[in-house]
Amino acid sequence: MKKIVLKFGGLFFVSVASGFLSYACGLNTHQALSLAIFVASIMGTLFFWEFRLSFAFLGSGLLLIAKAIDLDSFLKLTSLDVILFLAGMMIVVSLLKDAGFFAWLVALILRARNLSGKKFTFLVMVISGLLACAVDEVTSIIFMVAAILEICDYYEVTPTPFIIISVLATNIGSAATVMGNPIGILIATKASLSFEDFLLTPFPIALIALLITILIVFRWYRRAIAEFDRHIEEMKADDILLKLISVPMDRHLKTSLSVFGAMMVLIVLHRRLELLLGLTENTILLIAPMITAGVIMVWKRHKAREYVERGIEWWTLLFFMLLFAQAGTLRHTGATDVFARLFADFARNNSGGLLALVLWSSSIGSSVLDNVIVVVTYVPIIKSFFALGYGSQTFWWALLLGGCFGGNITLIGSTANIVAIGLLEKEKNIRVRFRDWFGIGLTVGLVTTLVAWALLLLKNYCCSF
Amino acid sequence: MRTSLIKFFILIAVSILVSAVSGRAGMSHQQALALGIFTASICGTLFFWEFRLSFAFLGTSILILTRTIDIPHFIEFSSLDVILFLVGMMIVVGLMKDAGFFAWIVELILKMRNLTARKFVIAISLFSAVLSATTGEVVSIIFMVAAILEICDYFEVDPVPYIIVSVFTTNIGSAATVLGNPIGILIATKSSLTAEDFLFKALPISAVCLTATIVVFDFWYRKKLNEFDARIRELGANDILIRLISVPIARELKISLFILGLTVFLVTVSHRIELFFHLENNAVLLTIPLIISAFIMIWKWHKAREFVEKDVEWWSLIFFMFLFAQAGTLKYTGATDVFAQGLISLARGSHDVLLGLILWISSIGSSVMDNVVIVVAFIPIINSFHALGKGMEAFWWALLFGGCLGGNITMIGSTANIVALGLLEKEKHIAIKFFDWLKIGLVIGLVTTALTWAVLLFLPVFG
User: Fold this and answer.
1) How far apart are CA A89 and CA A93, in angstroms?
2) A vs B: CB pairs below 8 A
3) Model confidence over A15-51: pLDDT tens digits?
4) How many CB atoms lie within 10 A of CB B231?
5) What is the CA radius of gyration of chain B?
6) Got the DSSP string for A285-350?
7) Chain centroid to CA B427: how far?
8) B24-59 as b/e: b if 16+ CB within 10 A
9) Given this model, what pLDDT does residue A245 score?
């Protein structure tokens, strides 16, 4: 109880201090107020994770009552389009879960022929990465953890290293497409980037980062992999397991997959279709999940309500909505322009320096904060960069890659980490200690961020010719 | 399967017909399309209640794909402020449920001294009306039904009349405040009416209708009430029942009661606060439930997630959101202006005739479909009446009361009716016949709507 009061006091102090300090530094009242409330919201999520929605509600109420922003603008800044995209995706994912898609995928790994330690590690990482970019990181990690636990149980090896590598690959893969991570669609809508743009830049970068991570992991966990090999030899082939788990591809699953496939086609071709139909940018991208969800709810009418009420994470979406609006308020009041100016001065107006600043601060920021929060803070700042004339598409990619790759650094760096560790503790009663994670997490986090940096610079360099 | 196919074809045919006819009648391509899709959505909710969300999703997608509207406007029309208000209120009501507020109300009714049949009717009517005006009709009816069933069980009388009167008064009470019914807050945000206006104008009309309902009901069911009195004399009041249940008020309930009271109070004076701090209209009204529910979620932090996920009716809210936006599209394309013009020429420009039209159309419309659908369709039309200048306020009241009072006419007229009948069937295996309801429902619906009409026409405050 005393600790809570202390934390609360700290939060209150820091936010009031940041408000006054920025006021003293020349921000006007509304800017200072919106900044103080935003700081309080962010600190609230750091210190009081369970109270985050309350903080978001209170902060939004205060912003409105203090006239830092008017109601209409506030509502516009909630990015309801992003929220509805995520809600639609969650309905689609509920269908896939329901149809047994993930169980089928797990069985696919288990049935791999001539399994060896390295092959298993490779498979886990590639599938985690691909699944994360096709569905979303949280769903993907839940099923990957289930699969890994099952296999490790069968071969009687410690699952911890394999869980960790799966998480690493999931976070890296989630940067590759619009669907992988909430920050993907957020950046896509704010920067008007299309799925094709994602395919051209973050996708190859994530792929290279993933390959490098696989090499690092082979080296780092060589003992665990060698032990896995030993156990495989002892058990001989995995024929028994093979027979035990063979999930057939039934009609229901096939239909579900084709529905999902149809949505993917819409998403992949969205830019072309928009041009063809003369629609504004990202219209089709944003409504593709909605169309699919509409069709799914006609098809599965008995489960429609369940998909909407249970499948959609309303708690999180509500929090995102208000967080988006609060960060938007910072831009609305002009506070982020001041920051952008500050950043630009700090980087001596050098766009390479700014790029490094955005990439590394978002990466390190995401290692302790939810990456959505980091990205939401940065979006208005980067928009202000554009207003100041430093803008470049590369900043958006730096933000995306930093936000996703930084999540690997600590064990609380992203939702996928927290979910995986929670599952491991619940199912196997194994606690992952901070130092189990930190060595490999930091290495992979730093190396992948470096890779992203190098490739983004290379891309800029090539494009300048 | 076959009937649903037929229904589906009717739906498609009606909506295509509507848009073709409106295209002929001088509407633009986009207006006709928006109208066709809105019609399909409304028919969808009528014929395929379970599919309503799918219809909303798909209809919206078509509107966006055909460039009838773009995403930013669509989002603007989704009235997210109303949705957030409802989310906040649902969290508050979730707390009240959790704290045992409703069980306590039930107990208050059960413990009434010197019970007579008429006293019982007045008590349940008042409780139903007040509860629905403060916490929303659906939650209120659930607990009222529970209380009524318990008392009728004890005295071994037929619960049906009392359930019916409770539903009637729930619907009437829900018109009295902005909290009672989603259409209340919707109308408050779209017009310039404040919660205070509701207090001084909607509440009195509601009270008049409530009194009329009790009088009509007492006459209609006089035999049943006399039977009830005879049973009470036989069993010697409810002394045993009183002794059986005496739960003291817990501290938690007291705090919750205080929170509910504070919410109602703040909502009522919200306009004063807005004026005092020079805030825009509705800024305080809409943020109060958010701030209150934030404190609730801090206080009950281990239940916060449950309040948000279980007590908030996301399924309905997301449907409302899309429905609001589709109706907004009608306004955006200008289709509603055409309608408004049509209504005005039908009324020959007379304000009073127009008022009657709005009141009766919304009342009769609400008797067969969800009142939110009706109100949402009417709001942009009424906004288009601005050209008439005077007497806008009366139109809004007509819409509000038509929407709430019409719900009494048939047994499917409002959510409260459906919930109450479902509970009655589940608990007691009593199914009320459509025409049994219609007889009394029609009388009550017509009498109360006519009373409202008279008040709106003849009392100058409502001009």
Assistant:
1) 6
2) 136
3) 888 888 888 877 788 888 888 888 887 777 777 777 8
4) 15
5) 23
6) HHHHHHHHHHHHHHHTTTTHHHIIIIIS-HHHHHHHHHHHHHHHHHHHHTHHHHHHHHHHHHTTT-
7) 24
8) eeebeebbbbbbbbbbbbbbbbebbeebbbbbbbbb
9) 60
pTM, full prediction = 0.87
DSSP annotation of B367: H
Strand ranges in A188-275 using DSSP code E only, listed in sequence order:
none
Predicted pLDDT at A398: 93
A255-284, pLDDT tens digit by residue?
999 999 999 999 989 988 999 888 888 899
Local mean pLDDT, 10-residue blocks, chain B (463 residues): 79 84 79 82 74 86 88 90 91 88 80 82 92 88 87 86 94 92 90 88 93 93 90 72 65 89 90 86 88 91 88 88 87 82 81 88 86 86 75 88 92 85 86 87 94 87 64
Distance CA B426, CA A189 (A): 48
A172: tokens are 């890296």
Set of chain A residues whose Cβ sits within 8 Å of the Cβ of B51: 297-298, 301, 304
Closest-CA distance of chain B to residue A312, Å: 9
| Core vs surface per residue A387-401: b (16+ CB within 10 A) or e | eeebbbebbbbbbbb
Burial of residue B265 (number of CB atoms within 10 Å: 0-12, 13-18, 19+): exposed
Q: What pLDDT, on the 0 to 100 scale, is given for residue A140?
A: 87
Element (H, E) at B345: helix B335-346
Structure tokens that stand for B139 in this block: 């939650």
pLDDT tens digits for A149-164? 888 887 888 899 999 9
When the pLDDT of each residue in chain A is averaged and rounded to a whole number, the result is 86
Burial of B7 (0-12, 13-18, 19+ CB in 10 A): middle
What's the confidence (pLDDT) of residue A170?
Answer: 94
Which residues lie closer than 8 Å to B295 by C-beta, 6 or more apart? A54, A58, B259
DSSP annotation of B462: G
Q: By C-alpha distance, which of A211, A181, A194, A371 is closest to A272?
A: A194
Asked whether the beta carbons of B323 and B373 are under 8 A apart, the reply is yes
> Do the Cβ atoms of A312 and B314 come within 8 Å?
yes
Q: Tell me which residue in B64, B288, B294 faces A287 most closely, judged by beta carbons.
A: B64
Q: What is the pLDDT of residue B457?
A: 87
For residue A45, the one-letter residue type is: T
Q: Give me the residue from B65, B70, B295 closest to A277, CB to CB.
A: B65
Among A372, A366, A447, smallest CA distance to A412 is for: A366
Return the SS3 of B95: helix
User: CB distance from B308 to chain A under 8 Å?
Assistant: yes
Cβ neighbors of A287 (< 8 A, separation 6 or more) are B60, B61, B64, B65, B71
**What spatial distance separates the first Cα and last Cα of chain A, rounded to whole Å?**
61
Residues of B with Cβ-Cβ distance to A65 under 8 angstroms: 277, 279, 283-284, 287
A335 near A35, Cβ under 8 Å? Answer: yes
End-to-end CA distance of chain B: 51
A206 pLDDT tier (thresholds 50, 70, 90): very high
Q: Per-residue pLDDT for A80 more than 80?
A: yes
Q: What angle do CA B462, B413, B216 make, to 5 degrees?
A: 65
